[in-house]
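Open question from group meeting: does this chain pack into something compact, or does most of it stay loose? Before anyone orders reagents, we agreed to write out a predicted structure and look at it together. Recording both the input and the output here so the notebook holds the full record.
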Amino acid sequence: MDTMRLRTLHNPRQTQVLLEGCLAVGGPVIPAGSHRLQCMEELPTPLRRHAEARLDSDSVWLAWSDQRRVWFFTGETSLALSRERKQPVLTVREFDERGELLEAANWVLTQHEGWKRLAA
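Structure tokens returned:
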């Protein structure tokens, strides 16, 4: 990917759009009736720490709750992998309510297949 396009990807707003798209296709199913958490104050304390850690970076967080559970994800554009693959690559992490990492994976946005999980 060219440098200018990579810089566009390395922007929190663009990363958020990429993460939303990736989760809509490749992420866990968020139950109907769940609502999106918009403010850090809505998060359990352990997850708030993860959200605060992203304030001064290019990574973002997204979360939903159904009053019983919270689904919390972080996303960060991998410039090195994006350059190598010539497509946007997003590192996605899922955490439980205690702030423990459940899963981490790299996802690539392909032109013809959409979001595709990269082999570890």
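Observations to bring back to the group:
The mean pLDDT is 88.
The two ends are 22 Å apart (CA to CA).
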